[in-house]
Amino acid sequence: MELKNAKLVVIITEAAIESNIISLIKSMGIKGYTIYHGVTGEGDRGVRFGSGGLGGFGENVRIETVISSEEKAEKVMREVCEQYLNNYAGIVYATDVRVIRIEKFSKK
Amino acid sequence: MELKNAKLVVIITEAAIESNIISLIKSMGIKGYTIYHGVTGEGDRGVRFGSGGLGGFGENVRIETVISSEEKAEKVMREVCEQYLNNYAGIVYATDVRVIRIEKFSKK
Amino acid sequence: MELKNAKLVVIITEAAIESNIISLIKSMGIKGYTIYHGVTGEGDRGVRFGSGGLGGFGENVRIETVISSEEKAEKVMREVCEQYLNNYAGIVYATDVRVIRIEKFSKK
Q1: Closest of C12, C79, A80, A41 to residue B37, by C-alpha
Q2: Per CATH, is B3-104 categorized as 3.20.20.70?
Q3: Cα C105–chain centre separation
Q4: Distant-in-sequence, close-in-space partners of A72: CB < 8 Å, separation ≥ 6
Q5: Residue A30 in contact with residue A67, Cβ under 8 Å?
Q6: Is C82 an interface residue toward A (CB < 8 Å)?
Q7: pLDDT over 60 at B7, yes or no
Q8: Could you cite one Gene Ontology molecular function of this protein (chains A, B, C) (predicted)?
């Protein structure tokens, strides 16, 4: 059981494009990801609403994925940003992580 | 489209003071943040309850914000801690991130 | 009020074993942790469902804890992985954080 360096890529954006983002990252070979619902916030387009009481309007999601290759992580970040974040509110960031069993989550 | 170094500041505390924390960080010039609901946990004050079934009592929230300046990130951490975490359960931490479009989320 | 280096250990797995994981990390001396519900995702065992409408079947949770000792953080990661992640879907990763008031959350 080995610890390996990897990148955790985090995408926080409008829930309306959740399935688009998932399709995009899967098309880039990403096998594993985690989605957080019940997320709200504020960016430069004003208040971004979460799922608490607003029935589907303006919900946010956080999508995160662990990627073993730094180059691929940056490519995913740029693709998401270029394809969606000109028209939708959102932020994309990455952080260094140490991970066990990464072979399950990114075939690279 | 450029990747920049920044700090992700994470505040996990009682939902009762969510709006106080938001007001505080906004007063320090923070333009963008994300809030996670449905969070529970345990610290040194015993079990911190989440929103699952306890109707508003003792809920927790996670508030995170990306800040381009390390100095400002530390200032936010200290202010939150000094003003609220003597009287409320909580933890504040920061991690290094690489971010796209940070200009949207922290004018510094 | 001092900033200290620590490890944030994140465990994302099936909600069915939430209490098992909590018992395990507490038995290793972990005093503080945060749990996120409403989490879903996909790994190498196919779609992992979250709490949105599937009433208890296949829900995921994210459990995170700040640990001051790197050695202990790795021990927690390995124990969780060895004891549970052969039979349950999940991922375990750690990242470097700077934390205030860590004395509240990990007595080491």
Answers
A1: A41
A2: no
A3: 14
A4: A28, A29, A106, A108
A5: yes
A6: yes
A7: yes
A8: enzyme regulator activity
Could you tell me the pLDDT band of residue C11, with boundaries at 50, 70 and 90?
very high
- The full set of domain ranges for chain C reads 3-104
Helix axes A18-27, A70-84, angle to 10 degrees: 140
Residue A108 has pLDDT above 60, yes or no: no
Please report, to the nearest 10 degrees, the dihedral formed by the alpha carbons of residues A105, A107, B3, B7 taken in order: 30
pLDDT, one tens digit per residue, over C57-92 is 458 999 999 999 999 999 999 999 999 988 888 999
A85, A94, A96 member nearest B101 (Cβ)? A85
How many angstroms separate the CA atoms of B13 and B25, rounded?
A: 14
Q: What is the DSSP letter of B74?
A: H
Orientation of helix B70-84 relative to helix B18-27, angle to 10°:
140
On whether the CB atoms of residues C77 and A100 are closer than 8 A, the answer is: yes
A6 touches chain B (CB under 8 A): no
d(CA B39, CA B15): 9
Cβ proximity of B88 and B14 under 8 Å: yes
